[in-house]
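During the no-cost extension, the postdoctoral fellow (Dr. R.K.) reprocessed legacy sequence entries with the updated structure-token encoder. One reprocessed record is reproduced below for audit purposes.
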Amino acid sequence: MDKQSMTIHPNKYGANSLRVALAMILMLTGNTGFGATQTKTTKSTNPTAFTLKPYSAIYKASIKGVPLGGFGERSLRQNADGTWTLEFSADATFFGMKETSHFAFKGARLIANQYVQQRTGLGNKPTEYATFDWPGNKVNWQQGHRQWSTDLKPETLDNLSYQLKLRMDLAAAHGQPLHYDIADNDEVYQRTFTIEGEEILTTDLGNLKTVRVKIHRDSDERATWIWFAKNYDYFLVKLLQEEKGTAYTIEIKEAAIDGQPLKKKQTQKRSERPKHL
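Re-encoded structure tokens follow.
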């Protein structure tokens, strides 16, 4: 796939704005601003007929519709031993991040094995490792010389694999909120997603029928929506965050599922924003 960077507008948006936009991409992968609710809730619905398929995708970032340099790339592949690896990387002139999740897929369950996070440039820090010890009911962390452990809850996922579980569950959610226990640094906490409805969305891959999901937060200072392509196994195609009068967006640029490129198809009119806004 072509990884050519988007145009940077230094006079309008500097290094900090670019970092914010790339952080929006990182929000797809975990602890950068997704937020959590501590409300006790039931487990998410398990789908019965979801087939994992390898994929690769490139996302572009913008602020108030202005393209920014850099890109985000996501991929899923199956390993020789039958386990899976989900990977995300974001790259720009002054910032880079890579996250990797190794997990097993049994029935409708994702079983987290290991999570790795690396950062370069702005926000640089030692590589962080999390290893899931299910017999011992612990997730063991290491970052540089520091080591620590956190108690696991049943079906706890890492900061990357839960996004795949969200895709799996959307098909069987029937409009009900979805909840996930996530191992994040020194705690395991819950994230909640509300399904708002279906929407036709125009993308670089054409007009897609999507399901719009909103991230639940206790505060209304920040609002975040994610769109998933209904006809492509709920593939993530767009994320929009509005905060303090500024809209940060990431959108799909290129993608291939199971080795087949997603091709552009024109169907209906464009939908720019959630209809209720």
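The mean pLDDT is 79. Helices lie at 15-26, 161-170. The remaining legacy entries will be reprocessed before the final report is submitted.
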